[in-house]
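Subject: two folds for Thursday's group meeting

Dear M.,

Sorry for the delay on this. The cluster queue was jammed most of the week, so I only got both jobs back this morning. I'm pasting them in the order they finished. Each block is the input sequence followed by the predicted structure tokens. Could you check whether the formatting survives your parser before we put anything on slides? The first protein is the one we discussed after the seminar.
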Amino acid sequence: MENPSYGPIFRDVASTRRHVLIDLWHRQLAICNLMMALSKYLPVFLDEGWIEIQCIATRLEENIYTTAMDEQDYFEEISREIRSIVWKTYVENERHQERLAIHFWNPQPGHSISQFDQAVETTLEQGTIIHPQLLSITQIPNHEEESSGGTENYCGMDRISNLSNDLLHTILSLLPAKEVVCTGLLSHRWRGLWASVPCLTIDENQFGAEREQQFNQFVDSILLKRCAPLEKLCLFSTGTCHASFWINLALRNNVKVIEYCETGRNTSRPCLDETILHFASRYLKVLRLGYVEIPSDAFDALNSSCPSLEDLELIQCMLGTIEISSKSLVNLLLIGCAIRTSVLICCPKLVSFTIMNPMHRCPIFEKLQSIEEAAISLDDLVHDGADEVDLEVYYCNILDSLSHAKSLELLAPFGELTFEMEMMNIPMFNNLTSLILGEWSMPSSFYPLTCFLRHSPQLQSLTLKLGMDKCEYCCALEHNAMPGGGSFTSNQLKKVEIKCIKGHKLVEKLVKMLRQNAKSIEELSIEEIEPSG
């Protein structure tokens, strides 16, 4: 699992050197402190000024990092650079001398990075950001503890903290949640912002080897102590029992986008706990799940109790439902999902869907009146564990349900029956303008291809992906051979692309057939690739 990307402030310092091992978090903190020091010395106007400050601070830190001999030398040079900037500010603006503050952690002898991280992780429970013994810092005055009059303003407040909450939330949403909490180091102004950040990215892999208890406590705290609605939750963890509870908490916080990926990668997909998790929310719009089993009760709630759900993406999931029937669903993505029993897709507002390499069987479709784009890609996994020889199991009502589509992609090996079984009753595709077909459409008679061309009067673009692969399972079954292709007339077809393995024996015959029947073709290209292995 790749770590979440960092924001633009830190992306230029993501590289590491062989002889200086400074972790990315402390390099980010150094850049933030350089930015705050520079913001007191250089005038900042509008967002362009902050971008310039970011660039300068990043270059300063990179120069120090590339020349530092060891960790101690790195921190000493960072501190020296900050003191230099502060001194220049003092000279030019002496009247703010006592108000200048710099917030920088300089590890002292005997204080390890692990101690620092441990102190940070207790921040939610203690209500403070870091243990003071681990900091070398000039404290920012507490407004509530200032003079009895309470009217004096703190003129030395860093300018980042003067930004609006909305802008600070946008910045913090780019960081992983663990680092969002740590930004409380930068200023008193930042200390409570973690509880209202609209987007949280929580990754168990950031919590080290002995991480389970720390991670669970961290996620419990950051979700239970929220003080504002949640826009988006991205969760990467092991243990679906805890994850079910956390997703439930997010739903109670009116979350709009949920992304959850089970990172354990067990041979069997862990099941979401249906006794804990209840997908019932009028706010949820996007749901992305990976490497989990979704029980039928959870799917029932998605179908009936999420009236705003528009995007559903399932990757390597086990589907325990008999139907996907959300009345609000607009986009559907299923990649590598295991389908043990027949699953019916009947979503009246579905505009686009992609189904790639389902295991065990292909879903069954009901008429999709709103469909515009559809892509189905099958491989041998669709027959994994199959023990049925009844050919009716391969009839999925795919073509008839997609007859309103404008763009259609159907990929499968040669001989795949899932598509072949429907060619005898192929409907008219009056809206179809773009068509992509695979090797399954290329028997010597070209029957599937010519059927599509006869039934697609508005077709303008045709792409053929020919990999010379073959479905051994289907070819071993006894079934009627397809009839001859026959002729066709296409007046709108302008562009044809053929992508094939070098030396494909049917390409020459195919090109000749297309030229004879589709006089309107303006561009015909052939892209040949060397066979693998």
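Second protein, same layout:
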Amino acid sequence: MKVLTSIKERLCSKKVLIVLDNVNDPLILKSLVGNQDWFGRGSRIIVTTRDKRLLASHGVINIYEARGFSDEEAFDFLRHYSLKHELSINDFMELSSEVLDYAQGLPLALEVLGSFLFSMTREEWRNQLNKLKCTPNLKIQEVLAISYDGLDDKEKNIFLDIACFFEWEDKDYVIEILDGCGFFSHSGIRALLDKSLITIYSNKLMMHDLIKEMGREIVRRQSLEEPGERSRLWFHEDIYDALKRNTASEKIEGIFLNLSHLEETLDFTAQAFSRMSKLRLLKVYNSEDTSGNFKDTSNKEKCRVNFSKDFKLCYDCLRFLYLHGYSLKSLPNDFNPKNLVELSMPYSHIQQLWKGIKVLEKLKFIDLNNSKYLIETPDFSGVTNLRRLVLEGCVSLRKVDSSLGNLKNFSFLNLKNCKMLKSLPRSTCDLKSLETLILSGCSKFKEFPENFGSLEMLMELYADEIGLTVLPSFFYFLRNLKVLSFSGCKGPPSTFWVLPSRILNPIGPILQPLSGLCSLVQLKLSDCNLTDESNLSSLGSLSSLQWLDLRRNGFVTLPSTISLLSNLEVLALENC
């Protein structure tokens, strides 16, 4: 206390400049620069730290986050090193380009690489750059690891999971998965942000390549010679080696296998996974799925993993299971991962996911897209916290189990291109949390359940090219609906999409099905055989409408009520 009093007494009337570099303990700030009244007017205190939380907790107002070099600044920085050595302009340009790409504006990396690469021959620095791709520079890694060393155990796990598996994934989605692992990921991700170990752009988790490399190197050094003794595996050759030789151990917590990198078939057997008692995350995926070409599914259906008939996992720790091209007709009878958060099996051969009731209370996401042999959904009675169900492209699906209506937190249902599906169970109308329903491409779907208008939270309905013949009158009650798309619903010319009136009671007003949609922002009725005889005047009552798509229809004139749409920004009328 005497020391603190002494600092304040000596400096309170003096104008000072104080620089505290690389502060990692809030006690240092409290002891040396406690409050502003410790120093005279005009004083400046500069604090550098790797932890933004430390500054915020001390009440620091003006925080400047150091940015990396731009390409131009980095190029000029490297030119300084080239002046000491005799390099041809071509060699300098080639080497600089490689270094800039590797360092990505990080001054430390530019300094370390520039200090020794420019002194090498062409063959030497090319060889060194190739080495860096698999063995990071130790000096750079040691400095970057200081921030990692300041994390607690759960924060370290979050960092390593992101570095190895979840870069470029949606932040909220990753939080759901990692919270299921008990990592308290809301605060953990905040800690990584404050230490500049990650950034967030458009809600996607991002990481500088050298920081990601540092995280992966930490995992690699857990066992340099035996991949099966590491906590996380992402490199296809390491995974292939561990499973082929049955050397995968109980230390493995996560495996992400990209099938597009495999050159030969890999067997997934019960024996290969038998020792992985701590496995939390398993993803067998095909990066080519993100191409967006959903018409060509032939390559996506091919899977270079052979799931043996006795294939099963240790379920106790499993939180995330993603198996592209799962080749068996159903899950094992003893499938019971009570802590599972996500189950995804795109392009699988599943006919029936499971029999009877499975109690999976923590399961929130199920994705079986393009599982073309799936005939009906399972009983959802034991999956009480399910939020999202994706069955897009399940072309044999005929029935959605009525137990779906019992799910209180269910918000998203995708049934796009389920071409055999004719209807939804009545219980669908009990989904009070449902926000998005996708039925586009369900060509045999002809009738909504009677009480569909009771879905008071429904905000988006996509029903393009379905078999509907009349616009149901209960649409009037979907007061929170913001997006409605019925493009390509072609009934008979003139009569289809005549919007029928409805008398609610003998003296009640005559209401059009669309007139009550006061929240509707986007309406798509393109290619619907609308004519001048269609009653389009009710469109004028859609006071919130911003986007109206009426392309490829047969009408010649628009109703005068269109002028009432004061918020309309886009009106599409091509080929009318």
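Two things I noticed about the second structure. The CA atoms of residues 540 and 562 lie 5 Å apart. The first strand starts at residue 17 and ends at 23.

Cheers,
T.
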